[in-house]
Structure formats: structure tokens, C-alpha cells
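Second attempt. The first submission of Pyrimidine-specific ribonucleoside hydrolase had a stray character pasted in from the spreadsheet, which I only caught after the job came back as garbage. Lesson logged: always re-copy from the clean sequence file. Corrected sequence (352 aa) follows.
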Amino acid sequence: MKQKIKLFGILCVFTMLFACKEQVKEPVAEVETAMAKAPILTGVVNGKKQVWIDADLAVGKKNIGRPGYSDVDDGYAVLQLLQADNVQVLGLSTVFGNNSIENAFAIGTYINKEFAAQKIEVYKGAGSAINLDSVVTNDAVEAMATALKKQPLTILAIGPATNVGLLLLKYPELKSQIVEVVLVAGRRTANDYFKIGNKGVQAQDLNFDLDNTAFRVLLENKVPLVFCPYEISSKVWVKQEDLEAFKTTTPGMKWLATASQPWLEQWKNQGADGFNPFDVMASHYIIAPEDIVSEPLLARLEINLDDTVKENNKETYKSYLLCTKEEGAPVTYCYDVVPGFHQKLMSTFKAN
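This time the job returned cleanly.
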């Protein structure tokens, strides 16, 4: 009798352990099921993905309020999509972020005028984060809404997600027209630091940090989201020899490579021998998702100590965009590239 009771007890323990294990797996399974059941929008016309670009362009501009130059990688993302054979860019909107909205709009207008084979419209968007007490539209939001009413679109949002967030607040009925929104943001844990060089500099998850509310709107509306975070961009480098190669391709790339020199020098000053092209990982995902390694995860906002503040004695906190297997909204999380990716990337910038 005692042996039967003991055996029964052992079986109960194993049953409980198995159940707990299944509960841990369940959220991830739910993500995969939700993605499989979601309506399939192709957003493809005549073999070309229909894409809207929303960017905080800052190529060649000095930082505002601090020394140094602003990011250049958004320029690479825009030019890469403009000359991609399988992409049709239907519009370009600008947003604040790496620099001012005025500078972003001026650069977008310049790129379109000088380097776009097929001219597109450029629209000025939000100059600051979403204010829930006063949700105000802008030219970029209205233009995106008009385009989405006509056809499904993939949205590349490589600055703060403000314009897309405003779009969903003002026109929630249009979310069914969004194929996916591809963004540069997120991390797995609050301790996954964005290290620049080897001299102790830790960067922000800037697009998210500048407008937490916009990302919350996207997550709550459950639109298909693709995150291309620092984790994946940290595995790709643009070096001096790459800039020299870019100068021999197209007029647009010659302009961009020249403007990238001060940005490269800043990274060298921090101990790196190149820079990570953050936004290009997102644009490349649109062109050739097979070159990007990703997995389904769940995304949520969570408050933790600010990782960019040194000697932070539980005094400064901030929100994080965390992507895990435990809880949150379903997202596609990109974390690596296929072998030979650098050459694949370089080939997308060559003259057709």
C-alpha cells in the first residue's frame, strides 16, 4: 500500500512539472498561432511591395544641444528602398528624432529631388512625441491615411513611431490595411546594453525612448510589428573601405558616403573601426527578409533603472520595450543575419 501511495505521489509531481513546463511554452505557442491565423495581406502590386517610409532623417547634420553629428543610417535605408527592384515607395514622411523635424523634412525633400528615379511626395510629420491630452494630426498622418484607404501598405518606421501612432489614434479602422510596420527598437532584457565602441558609452533605444506612447499605441492595436533592434544591427559594420566603395556606385551613395565620414570618425573616437547601420537592417528586411534571422516573441513596456545613467543609485528610471516569450503583444523579433550578409547588403547599393 505504501509503495502505491509513493508511486502515486511521484506521478503527481511529474504531472505538475509537465504542466508548469507547458504553461511556460504556452505564450510563445499563442504568438505562433495568432500569426498563423492573422489575415494575409501581401501589399504587393506587379511584383513590388508597396511601402511607405517614415524617417527621422539627419544625414550630415550636427546634433542639436550637444556636440557631434547625427546618425546617417536612415539615409542608407531610404536610398536602399528607393533603388530596390522589388519595392515601390509610395510616400516619404518625416518625424523628429535624431534631429529636428525641419531638418528631417529638408533632407527628405533633397533626397527625393536629387536621387529618386521615380519622384514621390514628401510630407512633414510630428515635431514632438504624442500628447494624449491633445492628439493632433499632421500632413504625414493624413497622407498615410489617404494611401492606406487605397491599398494595403508596409510601413518602414525608422524614427520615433509618432506618426504611425497618431495614424492609429485618428484612423483605427485603417489598421487592417497595414501589412506590417517595421521598426528599429526593442531588446530582450533591460540589461541588454547598447554599447558604442569600447570606451564605456551606452546609447539609448532612442526611437522608443523619444515616444513610449507611440509604441504602446502600436502594441495595443495589435498591428503586425517587426522589430530590428540593436541586437541585430550590432552584428553588421560599415567601415572606411565600404564608404569608399559606395562613392563609386550612384550619385546618391556618393553624397551619403561623403556625409557619413564625420559619423564614422565619431565611432572611431569611441574605439570602434566602423559604425552599425541600425536603420538599414529594417529596410533590408523589407527587401529580402530571407537574409534576416527572426523569431516570434511577445513585446511589452516595462519600467527599470535607466541604463544610460552612470552610478544610478535607484534614482533614475525609464520605460523599456522588452521582447520575451512570457507576455505581451505578438511581434517578429530580428536578431541575426545570414552568412555572407555584408556582401548582400553592399550589392543593394550598386547601380542597377
